[in-house]
Amino acid sequence: MRCFFLFFILTIFFSQCLSFQIVFTSDLHETLNVDGFGPAGLIEWLSGIDRDKTLVLDGGDLFDSKIQLPFVGDRRSSVLEYVKKVGYDAMVLGNHEYYFSHKWLQEYKKINKSLIGANVQDLEPFRIFDIDGVKIAVIGLTTIQHLANRVEYHNDLPKDPFESLRKVLETLPKVDYIICLNHLQHESDIKILESFPKIDLILSGHDHRGPELKKIQNSYLFEAASHAESIYLIDVDPIKKNVTYEKLKLPTNYILRDNTVGTLLLAGVLIGIFSILWVFF
């Protein structure tokens, strides 16, 4: 009886020691602050927790670019400042990151050292983290759906995610837990878990269908929502193979700057000049 009790206590103790947390954001689309709340609040919130036991991950579509005109509503430098201050452990590209020029994306890959992508050229396919002796692999995958500028990118578009994942798993060092950080459609996430039972958890963006957590066989799929409320704290128990989550609503004073006002003033001046020319000539 004593042995059973001791075993029970030790199991609980080690389970608590080996569990870890993930802060997951996805599909923010440059929406870092709405009515004083948003993912920009992570900058301060993360300073109050134990980062050694927490992975901070992003599932892509950090940028937006709905207006395809030079300089109008361009918030990219401000978003990059946010990324630097948060200090993500791993991030993947979304299809919206392909909405700008090829030159810009190449620069973004160089600047943002957190980016990974098993099916993306010039990026590390995965990262391995050690949390209290638990080795966790995070593999990145990016969608081939809804990509802009296909002609400009031609040979630099994402490759087939399934074949890329297969190759990574064949060479991946021995780890205790495998996470796929995906920017893929829902059907692809399901297919991955059905085809690759080694994957313990998929954290996915792209479809904006969450927050939704479901268990598939012995693995979990968590899908994010989008924009300012797409911030989650995920608890993982690798011993019990259990995953739970809560949505975070974080206050922030962070102001996302853009140069729209300057652009509009310039546009107003140009319109005025053309109007005068039209009248007199």
Structure description:
This protein has helices at 2-18, 42-45, 76-86, 102-111, 150-153, 161-171, 186-195, 260-280; strands spanning 20-25, 54-58, 90-91, 126-131, 134-142, 177-183, 201-205, 212-216, 219-223, 231-237, 242-247. The chain is an alpha/beta fold and 281 residues long. A 6-stranded mixed β-sheet has the order 4-5-6-7-9-8, covered by helices on one side. Strand 6, helix 7 and strand 7 form a beta-alpha-beta unit.
Labels describing this entry:
281 residues; alpha/beta; Purple Acid Phosphatase, chain A, domain 2; six-stranded mixed sheet; five-stranded mixed sheet; 8 helices; 31% helix; disordered N terminus
